[in-house]
Amino acid sequence: MSYADLETLGKKLESIEHAIAILSADEATNMPVGGGEKRAESVSFLYGLRHETATAPEIGDWIAKAESEDLSDDQKLAVREFKRVYTNATCLPADFVVRKSQAEIRSEQLWRDLRAKNDWANFAPALEGVVALAREEAQMRAEVLGLKPYDALMEQFDPGNRVADVAPVLEKLKSFLVDFVPEALDAQEQRYARRPAKSVEGPFPIEKQRELGLSMMQALGFDFTHGRLDVSHHPFCGGVPTDVRMTTRYKTEEFLTALMGVLHETGHALYEQGLPKDLSHMAVGQARGMAMHESQSLFVEQQLAHAPQFWQWAMPIVSQHLGENALKGWEIEDVVAEVNKVERGYIRVDADEVTYPLHIIARFELEQALIGGDLEVVDLPEAWDAKMTQYLGLSTIDNPKDGPMQDVHWPAGAFGYFPSYTLGAMLAAQQWQAIEKARPNVLDEIAKGDFSGVNQWRSDNIWSQGSRYSTPDLIKRATGSTLDPDIFIAHLKKRYG
Amino acid sequence: MSYADLETLGKKLESIEHAIAILSADEATNMPVGGGEKRAESVSFLYGLRHETATAPEIGDWIAKAESEDLSDDQKLAVREFKRVYTNATCLPADFVVRKSQAEIRSEQLWRDLRAKNDWANFAPALEGVVALAREEAQMRAEVLGLKPYDALMEQFDPGNRVADVAPVLEKLKSFLVDFVPEALDAQEQRYARRPAKSVEGPFPIEKQRELGLSMMQALGFDFTHGRLDVSHHPFCGGVPTDVRMTTRYKTEEFLTALMGVLHETGHALYEQGLPKDLSHMAVGQARGMAMHESQSLFVEQQLAHAPQFWQWAMPIVSQHLGENALKGWEIEDVVAEVNKVERGYIRVDADEVTYPLHIIARFELEQALIGGDLEVVDLPEAWDAKMTQYLGLSTIDNPKDGPMQDVHWPAGAFGYFPSYTLGAMLAAQQWQAIEKARPNVLDEIAKGDFSGVNQWRSDNIWSQGSRYSTPDLIKRATGSTLDPDIFIAHLKKRYG
């Protein structure tokens, strides 16, 4: 039976991906510096083996035969997703993949060097090469998939997402935010006038912060028999569903940044740990794309851990681990004001819940123009500056380092990825609204540190669904409606208005 | 060029082995319990891939062609070692390998269960099956390699070691030890009468013990840019030469056991870190077998760290990390007496430098008889008891758990491995004697914590040689003579007489 062949192949791929995931997590958390060269050789060999294994020509035949076999509904969905992944993995000629990956590696290395030197002029030609290849790639993907070029790029990260659906949603959000950011800043100023911002007095020993993070992870439902928390320079959530490797980074002078980071990654981890275990070897058993994954991390970070009820439960736990003086003189309102602080800034990764979408929307618009040929790399600094000035009132024209050179995505050839971040924030708000409808007392539950209700809803509606449905279908099945910008807008108004 | 094909293949094998080594180290040190099943699947897939890759039929052709190519002397040695490994890996039919490995896995699992229950009767049939397969294996290996059956088994662990050479050496050592053990025990009793054994008063915090171990590793030459120290239930030295993963296990009530364990594993680690880097992808660049590896760990543990001069340097370091009270009232003689304590016992892994070889020699004699068909499993308890009674004055007849059931080796099908331990101890003593001749002031160097001289000698003569030579050839090239039991005997007399 060809379905059985696909399962055997899936188990092989699962074993290879397991090795890559754990070796990569180990590299970031444990590997001594001199181990890097041989580690890179080993992981690169495994990536090659995975690609070779996942794109073998006979797989196409197996899929075609499996499609005509007598399968259960779940097996049919599994074959459909296997085919989608296989088509996406095989739609580029091998020599193009090599050419592209070499150009991207060179461009990313150059970017690391030149970003530090704020040197746009010498970086632009490399980016031009990457953009040219991305246009070519988008064209080829589009033809195979029967999609528009930019849609074909997004399809890799969030299956089913199309500009025709996403653009109006983000356009509406943009129109709202351009006016709302100044309002939110005013409102914040008035709040601070009544109640000045508090500060914490460290040092906060790393071991104590770690214990605090572990106890919060535990309460949120993280399964420590299937995962652990380590330290790395860039926090991430990696590993495999049966062995999730989460990391954070500590500063001794304050603890909120590390803690919020732990909460964010816990959201990713819960998704991985909640995926259907019997399908872990099949594409249909994997998480549904970047936006949905980000919705799970932002659900915990923004929907749960930015709410006053969360801190009603969490503040005593902070004191328990870091001592009574850690938040001495703070009330719930102070913590909430601290974690919900709004600030205009140049850097996306430092942005808050309110300004972050504008960073994303600017990139979404710019990269569509780059891929569509309506914008050339040489004109990018001006185009970037114009959008930042219009959306956030910040000019970046003299500072490309904090302008179009700030992110690794484009230098590394990732186009169509940026929207996932903000779509994730909106999906999270929409899930929260659905949960509030289903569980009117959910905020009381959270104030008691009881996350079983929100977890059960997310397990039933998101985690256990794996990749059975496209991103738009999954959110519709979960919440009853497609992505609705008004829900996120209402959330922001309520919290920051 | 076929030599180039062998190098390409070697790089592929190195990448696979890298992945296996790091995944295995991670499993023992970091993996949460629920990660085990998928980890086993991944590592087992990689083992299969390694076997398939290392035994492909075209490799035989490449080797044959490479043998007639115009190669450097070092390349010729590399081809010879490649051929040796390939021949050893391909000399058993695939279906036999599967049958054997299934029987061994079942037998080992049964052993874990029944050893705890001290149940020899129910375990014996499984061991009979394993022995039958080992006899068959030895016969097949012997035919391909042109060796005697037991020699063909030893060849896997210590290339070049033959019963004809090893047996007389161990026979001489046995004759000496059977009389010497009581003498050493008497001498020890007299020393204790003059100077009673000291004890330590804990607790010794694990973090402090860890720092002590790290500082000793550093002084001994461990390169922390290419390795690290972790904790595991069973201490080991794993990983790869560019990323050595060493472990230990701490008890808070005393620190000497963990410290001696760290020193032992550091010996293994130095060997791995000192292997020729440019040959890391070739068999000839690997460590030369189990006995030589054990000689490196025992060199550090027994030759260096059992010597008074070592403690002259090390005692202040212990105090520095664990506090002045850690060895309060101890003098160098007390530490030396403690680490050199001789005691008759049932268990090999708990045995000291003097009694350990008798445990090994008993096994060496018994497993030769088992493989040769001169002893059947049903008669093993009596045969074991007879040897233990004769060599150590201890009867195990009523306690198979601490008799022939104590080690995992036979249940797991490893025959021909045991002699490596004692050959390693003898090789270490022989290397020490050669170093003392070459560096008459070496004990003064050690008293100052200067290990550069002993490391340079071992690097030049052992580590950098990789697997260019057989075990007997390597020790002869390094010390000027083949394995000489009188050196080890003289060492024991001097230290324990």
From TrEMBL, chains A, B:
Protein name as it appears in the record: Metal-dependent carboxypeptidase
UniProt record similarity statement: Belongs to the peptidase M32 family.
MF term (GO), any: carboxypeptidase activity
Keyword set, alphabetical order: Carboxypeptidase, Hydrolase, Metal-binding, Metalloprotease, Protease
Function: Broad specificity carboxypetidase that releases amino acids sequentially from the C-terminus, including neutral, aromatic, polar and basic residues.
Reactions performed catalytically: Release of a C-terminal amino acid with broad specificity, except for -Pro
UniProt xrefs under PANTHER family: CARBOXYPEPTIDASE 1, METAL-DEPENDENT CARBOXYPEPTIDASE
InterPro entries, sorted: Peptidase_M32_Taq
EC number: 3.4.17.19
Record bears the keyword Aminoacyl-tRNA synthetase: no
Signal sequence segment: none
Domain of life: Bacteria
